[in-house]
Write the C-alpha cells for this entry.
Amino acid sequence: MIKRTKALAIFIALTISSVLTFGNIVCASDKQLSPSEKAVQKIEKARDELEEKRKKLLEEYGPDSPRVKVIEEEIVALAQDYPARVKEAREQIAKSAYACGTAIDRLLEQGMSRTGQAVTALEAKKKELEELVEKYPPDVIASKTYSEAQRAFSRVTEGRPRGDETPAEEWSFSFAGQEPGNLRVIAIQGVSYRFRWAPPGSFMMGSPETEQGRDNDEIFRQVTLSQGFWILETEVMQSMWKSIMGNNPSSFKGADLPVECVSWSDSQGFVAALNDLGLAPAGARFALPTEAQWEYACRAGTTSPFSWGDSLNGDQANCNGEAPYGTDVKGKYLGKTAPFGSYAANPWGIFDMHGNLWEWCEDWMGPYPSGDATDPSGPARGAYRVIRGGCWNDAALRCRSAFRNDAGVDGRSDVVGFRIVLVPIAEEKPQGTEAPAEE
C-alpha cells in the first residue's frame, strides 16, 4: 500500500511538472516567462529605450528633424514585428492551458478527487493561463507609421474581433454620436470598452420639492451641457483595471464584477494611464464625469427618482431591498456587488447607474450655485469629492438619480468604484489634485 501511494505521488508530481513546463510555460511559483513572452518583452524594452532617445532628441531638435525620424523608423520596425510575437505568445499560452485540461482529465481517470491538491493546483494554473491569454490578442494592429506604432504596443486589435469594436481612428472623423445611446466600442489591452453617447442638451438637475426623501442640497435647476460625451456603459470592470494597472484591489473578486476599493486618486491614475496610451479619439480625452454629466447620463431623459420610475426594492438595481423606496414591498439584499448585466440598462443603454457601487465624479463637493447653469464643474476647491449612484449596501432612497454623497480623495471602500467618459479636450477644466481646503 505504501509503495502504491509513493508511486501515485511520483506520477502526480511528474504529471504536474510536465504540464506546467509544457510549451515552455513554467510553474506559476517560479514567476518565469516563456520564450515567446520574453520575445514580446524584449521588443517592448527596445521600444522603451528608443522612445527615451527620441524624447531627449526632441529637447534639442524639432519633431521633423532627420535624427528624430530615424528613431521613429526604428520604432516602427519593432512595431511591425510585434504583432507576430504577441500572437506566438498567445498560441503558446493557449497550448499550455489545453495541456493543463488534458492532465486534469488524466488524473481524474486515475481516480484522483477533483477537490484533491493535485487537481486543484492544475485547475488554478489552467485558469491563470486562460486569463493570461486574453492579454495577448491574436490580431494586434499592423503598423506602418509612428502613430500606429503607439497603438500596436498598446495591443489595440485590428477590425472588430468581438463584432462591435470601433477602431479609434474611425472616431476621429465623427466623434459625436447621432442619437442618445449610440454605441462605440474600443479594445484596449485586449479588453472591450463600450461607450454610449450622451448628446448635448438640457435637463432638470436635482429633485423637485415633491420628491419623497429629498435632501436640501438637491436644488432643482436647469442645467445645460453644451458638449456631448461618451460614457462607459458599465462601471470600470476588474478586467479593465487589471489590464491597465496590473493589480486587482477589489474585495469581491470576479471578471464580470466592477472594480472597487479604489480611491478618487486611484481612479485618476487609471484615467491618466489610459490617456498616456494615446488611444482616445482625436480631439478627445478620457476623464471622470462631472457631477452634472453623471446625473444627465443617469436620468437619460427621465424625470422620476429612478430612470424606470418611482420605486425600488432591489428588483431593478442592486441595493438593500429590505429598505425599499416608493413601495412597502421588501426585496432582495445581495450583500455584495452584482455582475454586469444583472439589471436592465437605462434608456440610453447604460448599466448600474443606480446601486451596485457609488461612483467617483470629477467635482469637489459643494452646494449648487443658485439659478440655471451651463457646463457646471463644481467648486474650485473642497475637502471631499462627489460620489453618486448609491451602492449594494444602501437603502433604495440613496440610489435616486438626484441623491448626492461625498468621500475623501484617498478613501477606499468596497462600496465605491467609478466609470469613465470620453470628452472633447477643449472642454477640459482641470481641477488637478490640489490640496483640499481645510474644513
